[in-house]
Amino acid sequence: MGGSHSSENRWTLGLQGAVGGDGDDSDDKEKEEEAERERQEAIREAEERRKEKHRKMEEEREKMRQEIRDKYKIPKKEEIAEQQQQEPDNPLMRKKKTPEELAAEAELEDQDEFTKLKNTIETQVNELKSQIESKCVMQ
């Protein structure tokens, strides 16, 4: 039983040291606050350096992107986005399609595999029909 009593004394001694009011407590708090301020300032400075580094890297990337756009004559995405924003959201107010645009869309829709096959067969049948008609003379 003596062993449990000694561990209890250590705990209370440790507690008294932490709670004790010797007057050094205010100095410790000031030192801790100063250390915390320094730590926060160091974090802030590191964050600013990191942001500046990334800003410079992004500028370099943007220069490279622009060189590529210029070389291949590609419009910048912002320009494309502006063109898309000009179209109104209301479907009744959208730009009307020309007959040529409608015909092009219809042609694209017709280009599925089955339709291609059907068109090919129809073309061949019509060619054979015209060949036969030219050879046969009706009396």
From TrEMBL:
GO cellular-component term (any): SNARE complex
Ranges where the record places region Disordered: 1-115
InterPro entries reported for this sequence: Synaphin
The keyword Secreted is assigned to this record: no
UniProt keyword Coiled coil, yes or no: yes
Keywords: Coiled coil, Exocytosis, Neurotransmitter transport, Transport
Highest taxon of the lineage: Eukaryota
Spans traversing the lipid bilayer: none
Gene Ontology BP annotations: regulation of neurotransmitter secretion; synaptic vesicle exocytosis
Bias (Polar residues) ranges: 1-10
An example Gene Ontology molecular-function term: syntaxin binding
Biased composition regions of type Basic and acidic residues, renumbered to the chain: 28-80
Gene3D superfamilies from the UniProt entry: Single Helix bin
Role of this protein: Positively regulates a late step in synaptic vesicle exocytosis.
Similarity annotation: Belongs to the complexin/synaphin family.
Descriptive protein name: Jg14185 protein
